[in-house]
Amino acid sequence: MVAGEPLSAVFEARLFGPAGMDTAFLRPARFADWPGPRTLGFRPGRDGREPCSAFDNEGFHGAGNICLSVRDVTARARRRAIGTVPAEVRTPALADAWKPGHNLTLGSWYCAPGKQQCDYSGHHQGFDTFAYWDTEQAITAAFVSNGGLPPSYQTG
Questions:
Q1: How far apart, in whole angstroms, are the C-alpha atoms of residue 2 and residue 60?
Q2: pLDDT > 90 fraction of the chain, expressed in percent and rounded
Q3: DSSP for 112-154?
Q4: Which is nearest to 64 in space by CA: 96, 33, 108?
Q5: Would you tell me which of 70, 100, 102, 137 could form a disulfide with 144, CB atoms 3.0–4.6 Å apart?
């Protein structure tokens, strides 16, 4: 609970909705409570791909338990690229996470100086995500994989 609301409602109101991420959700603790189809993660194994996915009753919400589609990643990056993210979301997300001038922001974006070109990448249990946006060119790119990319191709 945050401010008397379930954490999932706070994420919807403060992140998913403003970012245009209409299929994103916080992963429920139990797979029995999963809202709709569930995609499994894999990793390369000796005999091809082997399962590598989330576990039932994982006790945290973090990058690995925020479930989103490539459409959600694209929507988030596109809104950044064309400058339609509300200031109350954009400003804290692009604030420096470390010392001024460092390229990592509080929103987990890695940005070039001037913060007009940024990217995000992540890896968790067989899933890889990448998003890029460029405000000057108004372009975006997004990638989501559950195929367990070889380590040299993993994004995080």
A1: 15
A2: 2
A3: -TTSSEEEEEEEETTEEEEEEEETTTTEEEEEEE-S---GGG-
A4: 108
A5: 70
Q: Whose CA is closest to 41, among 131, 142, 149?
A: 149
Judge contact between 128 and 64, C-beta under 8 A: no
3-state secondary structure of 98: coil
> Tens of pLDDT along 75-101?
888 888 887 877 877 788 888 887 776
Place of tokens 């990056």: 77
- Residue 19 and residue 98: Cα distance in Å, rounded? 24
Two tokens at 77?
Answer: 């990056």
